[in-house]
Design a protein that fits this description.
seven-stranded mixed β-sheet, alpha/beta, binds S-adenosylmethionine, 333 residues, 3 domains, 11 helices, Rossmann fold
């Protein structure tokens, strides 16, 4: 859809609401217009705006996935192709899902992955997250017997050990978005810091002071190594505290901005809000029908602290049917 620049956000919101926005593709911008990707041109036309027949490029991660599909189309039948799921590349490790319907095609899938990503050294199947540290179970199906690697993202490098720490490469765009929102000079609290992906990306772009808190000893060890690994690229400073957020944070002063990539099942909202002077970015998992209730709860918690706030809730990814990983951007007054 060809949309005047100033109307972009409004139209995009409407297209998403109508479920005809094609999030797998990238919009194209000119000086006066933005071309938004739509799934259903006929429906879009009825909204009264111009629909033009141009092919917008797939987002890079989707393009990679498409490339794998193209290779596998020669090896799998159409019924089997339906079971293919999205996969992730972390450093030189491919993390895939292998539904029972595709178990007998394991080696074809590995071969196709190696064709698309010749640098791979390990292919592992992902299991579920466990415990408070949110570590996933993996089973290695090809290559070296290791889950340690160095992953590059947003101009920084992270050393990870997937058998001991949490890491989600799909939050790359989210980390970039946050880094662009932050301003030089801010003091930032990062709760549940992990191996420091958020802290490092923000400190790479902005001259800020970040205090990060993490309980998992292995994540802290890797976090310290990651600060060293990126030292020359960082504009900002990072202090990493090993400890329980619920014991450490109450003793800290307030910060300009608080970021909480909250582990699933943990409620740290009131603690995070109590330490935020201007901004809070609070991550949680919320059923689509409860998003409005989640917003109202944040406003209510602000009131309890004698503060006024505005809240925008952004859906980031689908966690399971109808449940989304969301980020609440809270501006405090
Ligand atoms: C969802 S992960 C996010 C990690 C990191 N921010 C990232 O995005 O890669 C949550 C992190 O919180 C840590 N964690 C869990 N409970 C904690 C607590 N009570 N205090 C501090 N860290 C905790 C886990 O070890 C894990 O690294």
């Amino acid at each position: 859809m060809k949309v005047p620049r100033e109307k972009t956000e409004k139209v995009k919101k409407l297209l998403k609401k109508l479920e005809i926005y094609d999030g797998k593709r990238r919009p194209r911008r000119t000086e006066d217009f933005v071309f938004l990707p739509v799934l259903d041109p006929d429906k879009a036309q009825k909204l009264g705006l111009e629909v033009v027949g141009i092919d917008l490029p797939l987002r890079p991660e989707r393009q990679i996935y498409k490339n794998l599909e193209i290779v596998l189309q020669k090896k799998l039948n159409p019924e089997e192709m339906k079971y293919l799921r999205r996969y992730d590349i972390i450093g030189d490790i491919a993390i895939i899902q292998l539904p029972p319907e595709l178990k007998h095609r394991k080696m074809e899938i590995v071969e196709a992955l190696l064709t698309v990503h010749p640098f791979l050294k390990v292919v592992a199947v992902k299991g579920f997250h466990r415990g408070a540290f949110r570590i996933r179970d993996y089973s290695i199906i090809w290559g070296e017997r290791r889950l340690t690697t160095v992953h590059k993202e947003n101009g920084v490098e992270f050393k990870v050990d997937l058998s001991k720490v949490f890491f989600n490469p799909r939050m790359k765009g989210e980390r970039y978005r946050l880094a662009q929102t932050v301003e030089d000079g801010e003091r930032i609290l990062l709760m549940f810091a992990g191996v420091l992906p958020y802290a490092l990306v923000i400190a790479r772009y902005r001259n800020v002071e970040i205090t990060a808190v993490e309980l998992n000893e292995d994540a802290v060890r890797l976090g310290v190594e990651n600060i060293e690994l990126n030292r020359r690229k960082l504009k900002g400073k990072i202090e990493l505290i090993r400890g329980d957020v619920f014991e450490v944070v109450p003793k800290l002063p307030a910060f300009d901005r608080v970021i909480s990539p909250t582990p699933k099942g943990v409620d740290a909202l009131s603690l995070a809000l109590s330490k935020a002077e201007k901004w809070l970015h609070y991550y949680d998992f919320v059923h689509e029908k409860k998003i409005d209730g989640f917003r109202r709860r944040i406003i209510e918690e602000c009131r309890k602290l004698g503060r006024d706030c505005s809240v925008q809730v952004k859906k980031l990814s689908d966690y399971k049917p109808h449940v989304f990983k969301v980020c609440a951007d809270v501006e405090l007054r």
